[in-house]
Amino acid sequence: MNNVDNIERPSKEEQKAAMESYYALAAALDQIHSDYAEIEVEENNERIKIPLKALQLLAKILKVTSQGKPVSIVPIATEITTQAAAELIGCSRPHLVKLLESGEISYTKIGKHRRIKYQDVIENRRKMKAKQRKLLLEIMKADEETRLYDS
């Protein structure tokens, strides 16, 4: 697996190829009605059976790549360091440790080191964003009621 620091943005040629491939794959996915699809590699005429979910993921990767965004795939059960988790959430490592110690995010300890499941970090980030969105809406509503904010 590539290190996050080594991920590069796709070139213009890669973006163009990804866009063309995305449209072709998206059209093909609409016609697949089973859990597996068989694809053929044109260069060596080899046929490969692939789960439909893997092809759908490939379509998402192609779409994002066509937009010029770098892509990294991390298995859900991957455990990451406190520093990596803090960078994902967008906070300091000491703040993340406080979240761990308070039980907001579960973790395991290996010796002196804490390890956090990637999916737990992503779930916490999703909850934080939802909470922020809710608070912003409440603030906007209060401002509208006191006429501090024109809708």
Structure description:
This protein is of the alpha+beta class. It has two domains: 4-66, no CATH class; 79-145. It has five helices and five strands; from the N terminus they run H-E-E-H-E-H-H-E-E-H. The protein has helices at 12-30, 52-66, 82-89, 93-101, 118-145; strands at residues 36-41, 46-51, 79-80, 108-110, 113-117. The strands form two sheets. The protein has a three-stranded antiparallel beta sheet. The chain has a two-stranded antiparallel sheet with strand order 1-2. Strand 4 and strand 5 form a beta hairpin. The longest helix is centred in the last third of the chain and has 28 residues, at 118-145. It is extended and about 65 Å long. It starts with 11 loop residues before the first helix and ends in a 6-residue tail after the last helix.
Protein topology:
Layout lengths: L11 H19 L5 E6 L4 E6 H15 L12 E2 L1 H8 L3 H9 L6 E3 L2 E5 H28 L6
Antiparallel strand pairs: 1-2, 3-5, 4-5
